[in-house]
Amino acid sequence: MYDAIVIGAGHNGLACAxxxxxxxxxxxxxxxxDVVGGCAVTEEFHPGFRNSVAAYxxxxxxxxxxRDLELAAHGLTVVERRMSNFLPLADGRALxxxxxxxxxxxxxxxxxxxxxxxxxGDRLERMADVLREVVLExxxxxxxxxxxxxxxxxxxxxxxxxNRFRKLDLEGQRDxxxxxxxxxxxxxxxxxxxxxxxxxxxxxGIVGNxxxxxxxxxxxxxxxxxxxxxxxxxxxxxxxxxxxxxxxxAMAASARSRGVEIRTGAGVAEILxxxxxxxxxxxxxxxxxxxxxxVSNLHPKLTFEKLLDPSLLPAxxxxxxxxxxxGSGTFRMNVALSELPSFTCRPGREVADHHTAGIVVAPSLxxxxxxxxDARRTGWSKAPVVEMLIPSTLDPSxxxxxxxVASLFCQxxxxxxxxxxxxxxxxxxxxxxxxxxxxAQAPGFAASVIARQIxxxxxxxxxxxxxGGDIFHGCLSLDQMxxxxxxxxxxxxxxxxxxxxxxxxxxxxxGGVTGAPGHNAAREILxxxxxxxxx
Length: 535
Known about the structure:
7-stranded mixed sheet
């Protein structure tokens, strides 16, 4: 008998398990694949070439999680990019984004925008500060059907949240309202006049978001990518040495050091429910494990539509999960390179600062919108949005000497093709389009590709359980955020079945490699079980 069984050894499942074990609980983690890590894994995809497979860069991993789980002591090292972002343009110019580069680089496009940049950064940072404060909090869950004591507690939580927003002056409150309701495009159009700066900032509004940058709510997705930090520096992005798998390997080592039992190759087929309470699981191999609680790190649709008898769930809850919007329009690739790309706007194949950056091919918001429209109509954009990172410029262990690996995060593609074809039929064709898009900015890039690893939306779903290829386990929209994530009335990481909890990205604060859902769920479970607190 275990105190809790955690389904899924992704980063949130491992974080939750580690915190529960620190609270004195006996924990079993069951993972379907043969390796822990979920979407944060490193694989050798060609002899001598290793790279992060799905998640590919570090910033949102919460410093408290890093500290509490002692990830550095268990082998995690994160190095910073020498330049944050690089936007190559067809006219031979480029926008460079970094602590010292942005304003100077932006002035070549608009002196007015360069002058406004600091004010924009200050304004966004104030809003990001509010988000940072609520990331590790359980959303208020004031609903009917609760006891008076619990209701009072939820009302106090709601009041605490309101006080955080009241800390902002009127201008700040107006900004926050805009960021939650407006589009990234409209928000940025109000600040800047030149296309390159709006493109590089607006990219964060469509990352993992199958939508136009002018879609209402996309401004929040932009903000969601701004609350992170690396090595104590806010707004910085970095790489985990050894790839993203280094994060989850450190989490697994931390969990095991606290007594957590982790079994791989142990997919769960069913959550066992007796007398209205989750009491354990049955694996695909037919093994049964029992526990006082079950904690799912899976996508909400997998948890509630695949592992449970639907008759056990309230009808309205089932309907809400059935309509949960999931599909981020992502096509993910890794490529092995014989040499570094030489960009028309920055010739040269020796490692330079821009090679360490997030290299974004998308010159304007209008380009991004066209890419989305194109994908909705035909299944994928013929002129896609591509972000390329070359982590081997910061971590030579990923590739043979003189060679490199690159991550390509590509948008937009439709989670399901409109003509009824399978992604298996077109994945190679679409991969060619993505590589050609980079080659247009860096001639010779296609010829330098030795091998490639392709993950279409369907591949991401089959391999990692990302329904529709959704990297966030569900769209980050107002109706699927905070107290409504995943369903209003269950934002406290508790399912509508006693003893069943959730700790994945389908809960607050959402997707990204943060560790926050796992941290928060463990706190609620420890409080519910009065098993101590290590959170």
